[in-house]
Automatic annotation (TrEMBL):
<feature type="transmembrane region" description="Helical">
    <location>
        <begin position="715"/>
        <end position="735"/>
    </location>
</feature>
<feature type="coiled-coil region">
    <location>
        <begin position="548"/>
        <end position="648"/>
    </location>
</feature>
<keyword id="KW-0472">Membrane</keyword>
<keyword id="KW-1133">Transmembrane helix</keyword>
<keyword id="KW-0964">Secreted</keyword>
<feature type="region of interest" description="Disordered">
    <location>
        <begin position="659"/>
        <end position="679"/>
    </location>
</feature>
<feature type="coiled-coil region">
    <location>
        <begin position="478"/>
        <end position="519"/>
    </location>
</feature>
<feature type="signal peptide">
    <location>
        <begin position="1"/>
        <end position="30"/>
    </location>
</feature>
<feature type="domain" description="Gram-positive cocci surface proteins LPxTG">
    <location>
        <begin position="705"/>
        <end position="742"/>
    </location>
</feature>
<dbReference type="InterPro" id="IPR027607">
    <property type="entry name" value="Surf_Exclu_SEC10/PgrA"/>
</dbReference>
<keyword id="KW-0175">Coiled coil</keyword>
<keyword id="KW-0134">Cell wall</keyword>
<keyword id="KW-0572">Peptidoglycan-anchor</keyword>
<dbReference type="Pfam" id="PF00746">
    <property type="entry name" value="Gram_pos_anchor"/>
</dbReference>
<keyword id="KW-0732">Signal</keyword>
<keyword id="KW-0812">Transmembrane</keyword>
<dbReference type="InterPro" id="IPR019931">
    <property type="entry name" value="LPXTG_anchor"/>
</dbReference>
């Protein structure tokens, strides 16, 4: 307890003590204690009483709230009933307006018509029910047959299993030696077959190698002679005219060059000088590496001979890499794209594939120039297919193309082919041709392509270079072909020996198997019998399986028919239900029209009753809300009273503690304080004197402070103490009031 509260409480106790003095200033402690205990009992009873009042008020409030909630629900329900009754009344009014004799007659007629529809639908349902019954009977019969077929199939399957088991047992009775011998025979036959295939393969390889040797020999015998004799020699006048033209391609220089070249007649003369040798009439593949090498070396030597006559010291080269690049380019940008450079007549072609040249130059990161010739179409004996071309044809095509580039290249080409042969460091005005390698390829139309590449270390087009010494190159080809032939013959010899060994092993295995079969004839008979029985069981099983499938199919069909019939029945039943519903609706319409007056009267009465019920419910809700407001007010008052009682009880307890804990000196001091107050405080003295007079008047015959207070004494004492308590209540504890939330 803080100091301020102690001072106020002490002053209050002094007043109470002074009031109780009648004749003697010094009172006994027991008398004072008795008085305070009586006061505490009174305040405790007051607290309990006020709390009981709060509980009762709370219960009354809860009851009132429930009444309000129920009344509100009744109002909502009554309002909904009014809405529904209003709709029913509106419908009845509309029905009354429609209830003319014509409408009633029309509705009655519609009922009669719909009754006929219902009867027809009912008949359809009956008939379809009969169909379903018949389909169910068929399905049941099919089910029985399918069950029987399934049982037969199971029995047949068991027979097959039994026969298979018997065969396994019979086969197991054969000796393991016989099985081993059979396996040995199978392995020997397989080895013999493989050996025979190897012999056939090696024989083909030998034949091919011999053909390659013959082809290489033909090249050795003829290419060198052709290369040395098939040269193109230019006149000094031609060389001079060509140099003048290339230095200054004027019209005059072009005319002079054309005059010296003598045109197509001179080309034919050169072509006729080509040496024809029977040893060159060997059918070859133009894309074969050996033929490629021969063609590119032949072409480069022809060109380099011309360049020497022209006075150039730099020579073109030939390599396997350049040939591979040429073949790849022609296939990709001419064959695969169906690009016909000359067409069928020489004047209807597509020309050079310039986009392809640009793309391939980017791919190889180099400069590329392309010359093209009529190739195989320039043969004296006419055009031949690529599949039947000979070495003679190919060499002649190269010779003729290069000759034509020199002497018959006027017109729109402006001698560009000749420029590509004789320019040094550039080709047709394009630089980057200081190390030229030539690749030769024929497209699928038979036209020849001469691809001029500038070889560098990066693109490696000069790698795997060919020797331009024709005789040396041809001899190397022959040597390689002869080595391949020798290797093929050696392999054929080995495979032939292996085949002989394998055939001997087959004979030995057959003999071993025959001996074992003779010694186990009975086991073989048992195996044969078991196999026959198994075959018979399998045949029976297949028959049973076919029957089972047939019955299952029949069962499925019967099931489908039954399902279809049931679906039709359900559809008929749905139709009947719809017709009945329509009939009921029409009958209801007739009834409504016929009884329009009664229905309207009933609807009007129901509506009025619903309105009356709503009025009553609304009134009940208002009354319940009034009761709730009263209960809420009473609950608030009871809670305030209870709070005040609790405050008084707390102060009384503090007074009791103050009195019970004081000593004789405290009591004497308190008496002195009272006397001092009587003499020094006028207002308080007057108050004490008045209280004392009342006490003396009430208890003049007692002569001392009463030990047990009666009702009057308690009221007198509590009057002063109560004033002090009420004065302190708000300062000591604060005033509390419950706020209603309901």
């Amino acid at each position: 307890m803080n100091k301020k509260k102690m001072i106020r409480l002490t002053a209050l106790v002094g007043v109470a003590t002074a009031t109780g003095v009648v004749a003697e200033a010094n009172q006994t402690h027991a008398a004072t204690t008795t008085t305070t205990e009586t006061t505490n009992q009174t305040t405790n009873a007051s607290v309990e009483s006020t709390q009981a009042a709060v509980d009762a008020a709370q219960s009354a409030f809860d009851t009132a709230q429930t009444s309000v909630d129920n009344a509100q629900a009744n109002v909502t329900s009554a309002s909904n009933n009014v809405t529904s009754a209003s709709a029913t009344l509106s419908s009845a009014i509309a029905n009354k307006e429609a209830a003319t004799s014509e409408n009633i007659a029309s509705a009655t007629s519609a009922v009669s018509s719909q009754a006929v529809v219902v009867a027809s639908a009912s008949q359809a349902v009956s008939e379809q029910a009969g169909v379903v019954s018949a389909a169910a009977s068929v399905q049941a019969s099919a089910q029985a047959e399918a069950t029987s077929a399934s049982a037969s199939l199971s029995s047949s399957s068991a027979n097959v299993a039994s026969a298979a088991s018997a065969l396994s047992a019979a086969e197991a009775a054969l000796t393991s030696d016989q099985s081993t011998a059979a396996n040995n025979l199978s392995a020997a036959e397989s080895a013999a077959s493989s050996a025979s295939a190897a012999v056939s393969s090696d024989q083909a390889a030998v034949d091919n190698a011999q053909a390659a040797v013959a082809s290489a020999q033909a090249i050795v015998d003829a290419v060198a002679e052709v290369q040395s004799s098939d040269v193109i020699n230019m006149s000094v006048a031609y060389i001079t005219a060509l140099k003048n033209y290339l230095a200054n391609p004027s019209s005059a220089n072009a005319a002079a060059l054309q005059e010296v070249a003598k045109g197509a007649d001179y080309v034919k003369e050169l072509q006729q000088k080509f040496k024809s040798d029977a040893s060159l009439d060997v059918v070859v593949d133009p894309s074969d590496p050996t033929v490629q090498e021969a063609l590119s070396v032949y072409a480069v030597n022809l060109i380099n001979h011309l360049r020497n006559q022209y006075g150039l010291t730099t020579a073109f080269g030939a390599s396997a890499n350049a040939n591979v690049a040429a073949i790849d380019f022609v296939k990709k940008y001419y064959d695969d794209e169906d690009w016909n450079i000359f067409g069928t007549t020489g004047s209807d072609g597509q020309g050079h594939n310039k986009n392809g040249l640009d793309a391939y130059a980017d791919q190889l990161n180099t400069s590329i120039a392309e010359d093209a010739g009529s190739g195989l179409t320039t043969w004296v004996n006419g055009k031949a297919t690529m599949a039947t071309t000979t070495l003679h044809n190919l060499l002649y095509a190269v010779y003729s193309d290069i000759a034509t580039m020199l002497f018959d290249d006027g017109g729109t080409n402006n001698w560009s082919h000749a420029q590509s042969i004789f320019e040094d460091g550039t080709i047709l005005g394009t630089g980057g041709f200081n190390n030229v390698y030539l690749g030769v390829a024929f497209d699928k139309y038979g036209y020849a392509h001469y691809e001029l590449y500038n070889a560098t270390e990066g693109n490696q087009l000069g790698n795997n270079a060919y020797s331009l010494d024709v005789q040396t190159a041809a001899q190397a080809l022959l040597t390689n072909a002869q080595a391949s032939l020798a290797s093929a013959k050696a392999s054929l010899q080995r495979m032939t020996t292996n085949l002989m060994v394998a055939k001997a092993a087959v004979v030995a295995a057959q003999n071993q198997l025959a001996a074992l079969e003779n010694s186990s004839a009975n086991d073989l008979v048992a195996v044969t019998k078991a196999r026959t029985q198994l075959a018979s069981a399998e045949t029976s099983y297949q028959t049973a399986l076919a029957t089972y499938k047939q019955k299952e199919e029949a069962l499925k069909k019967a099931g489908d028919n039954l399902a279809a019939a049931q679906a039709s029945l359900e559809a008929a039943q749905a139709t009947l239900a719809t017709a009945k519903a329509k009939l009921a609706e029409l009958e209801e319409t007739v009834a409504n029209l016929t009884n329009a007056d009664q229905l309207l009267a009933a609807a009007q009465a129901a509506y009025e009753q619903a309105v009356a019920n709503l009025t009553t419910a609304t009134g009940n809700l208002g009354a319940a809300q009034v009761d709730l407001a009263k209960a809420e007010s009473q609950l608030a008052l009871a809670e305030d009273t209870a709070e005040q009682a609790k405050v008084r009880d707390a102060i009384a307890a503090q007074v009791d503690q103050q009195l019970n804990g004081s000593t004789a000196n405290d009591r004497q001091s308190a008496g002195q304080d009272a006397t001092s107050l009587k003499t020094n405080g006028r207002a308080l003295t007057a108050t004490v004197a008045t209280a004392s007079a009342a006490k003396q008047k009430q208890g003049a015959n007692q002569g001392r402070l009463p030990q047990t207070g009666n009702d009057d004494q308690e009221a007198s004492t509590m009057a002063l103490v109560g004033l002090g308590m009420l004065g302190m209540a708000t300062g000591l504890y604060g005033y509390k009031k419950r706020k209603l939330t309901k």
